[in-house]
Specification:
The chain is built from 12 helices and 15 strands. Strand 3, helix 4 and strand 4 form a beta-alpha-beta unit. Helices cover 45% and strands 20% of the residues. The strands form 3 sheets. A 7-stranded mixed β-sheet has the order 7-6-8-9-10-14-15, sandwiched between helices. The protein is of the alpha/beta class and 372 residues long. Helix 5 runs parallel beside helix 6 and helix 11 packs across helix 12. The protein folds into 2 domains: 195 residues, Rossmann fold (3-Layer(aba) Sandwich), CATH 3.40.50.2300; 130 residues, Response regulator (Rossmann fold, 3-Layer(aba) Sandwich). The radius of gyration is 23 Å and the shape is globular. The protein starts with a helix and ends with a strand. Belongs to the leucine-binding protein family.
Length: 372
Amino acid sequence: MKTLFGAAALSLALAAALQPAQAQEVVIGVPVASTGIFSFAAVPGRNGIETALEELNASGELGSLKLKLLIEDTASDKNQATTLVSRFAQYDKAAVILGPTSSVEAFAALPVAQEQGVPVVSTASADVTRVGDWIFKSNATPATIMQALGEQAAARLAPKTVAYVFNRDNDAYIAQKNGVKDLFEAKGIKTVAEETIVGSDTDFTALATKLAALDIDTLLISTTAETSANIIIQARQAGLSDKVRILGTPSMASQQFLKVGGSAVEGTIFVADYFLESNSPLNKTFVENYQRKFKIAPDVFAAIGYNQLKVAAAAIKAAGPTYDRAAIRAALLTVKDLPTVLGGGKLTINDNRTPTYGGFVLTVKGGAFTLL
């Protein structure tokens, strides 16, 4: 009898061992501005996240782990972003949050994630890590990324007199402007004027007239892709000389900038986290998969979204066996030399919970982006 019971127990143990491991589901909240003023960045960013998820599932690198994305539209509204972050944290029990898209939304919503102890990997341009120690960035800080533009512009264009136009209601665009302005002034380059706008502005007639009358050789614009293009169009129409070089932010690395600006944005110079024509194997795979899925080439925001999920997935994988919020946060702090489509191809999260990877200085030539 003992033998029979022993054999039965052994059979059950072997059967259990041979059963496939039950998939453990990790919920990821994704509040993105699929509509509204920040949709130019959010839609390709969301598409990049979805591309990364397909690659992760196809590769099998997560093993039995299953990532469940809860993608919701903030409508570019900070109150909606706050509501969604609260829902993800408290109701959906998200292990990590990817978002929100913009700095305006992030500074309103992320204190909720910080209070609830949910790790966040945000695409917001500003330094949102100052909200608290549960907040991480998926892309470089504004001042850091703009330094590459400032250095190359100073060396290759030798500007002497500069005007700046920027969003006064967006911390990221203020920081991006200051990143170049501070560098230029340290090199003795004169600031002639600083003009401000708000995100809802659409009529730049008065601003364009003022810019055209300035004695400058360089104009830096720090705002959204579509707004940047409209300012350039209206300034040229108002008589801004073709000899005035126009510099800009990573927002210009958007197909929307080319679509709206047309020939008026030819020759514009800006910095970007991503370059479509990079010949790295990882980028070639990304571009191929993205184009197959969405029938359009990825832009910088698509690449940042793609990278955002890849960073989160690497941390989640390393956070086993619990895969809880605290373990994921701890794992994010250890990300080092992670292959990425951004910058130089290797990403490391620094002590400020911000990635470093380098950047590209691009220009518009023949209606397309190319290295300066």
